[in-house]
């Protein structure tokens, strides 16, 4: 395949050309619709997905059937990269909240490239540490910050990845992100509309005002972006293009 197709993923653009050549023959482009499942909880990892567009949510199902989103991923990451550490089954379900496309590669091929290239190891390990940092931040944010601040943060994170102010998102997805009932989602959206953060909502399409949302959200959004950018600046291989949170 022509490897130019992979330019849209920030992890892949952090690899040197020689590293990309290890993966290029095995990469296959695929698309996913809203609510598509890339991997289910308990499934063995067979592919790693490098998103080019769209938004993937990692969902945790509780014993009572309640589903909560732990974090999001877009073109800055790789779904299933955890499989590089050891053969394992997915601890979460990866579901598309926004339709998009990805480059998929068999785990065995990425594992081989991971073993052959120090740069690939460094970049992907940094990516996994970034994911852990985000999970810790979300856990702390959920524990101490009001629901309207957390909704503003999630909407900003999705906007970062879709790049436009119209966000196609269901109330069910928002309930999963916030870990609340849909009635709480409705009340919270009313608060954000009153504050000017949400301009309109029609058939699941939210029109947002980013500047207002940045004033409403808690400090977690800006703090996390600064921490991730600092990590990348300090730890990426010399000469490697920088990759950072979507903006």
Descriptive overview:
The chain has helices spanning 10-13, 17-23, 107-116, 118-144, 147-162, 171-178, 182-194, 210-216, 220-235, and strands spanning 28-32, 37-39, 47-51, 55-61, 67-73, 93-98, 100-106, 166-168, 198-202, 205-208. The longest helix is centred in the middle third of the chain and has 27 residues, at 118-144. Residues 1-6 have low confidence and may be disordered. The protein has a 4-stranded antiparallel β-sheet. Strands 1-7-3 form a 3-stranded antiparallel β-sheet. A 3-stranded antiparallel β-sheet has the order 8-10-9. α5 packs antiparallel against α8. With 247 residues, it is α+β, with helices and mostly antiparallel strands. The protein is globular and about 55 Å long. It has 2 domains: 3-117, Jelly Rolls (Sandwich); 130-247, Orthogonal Bundle (Arc Repressor Mutant, subunit A).
Give keywords:
globular, alpha+beta, 44% helix, Jelly Rolls, Arc Repressor Mutant, subunit A, 3-stranded antiparallel β-sheet, 2 domains, 247 residues
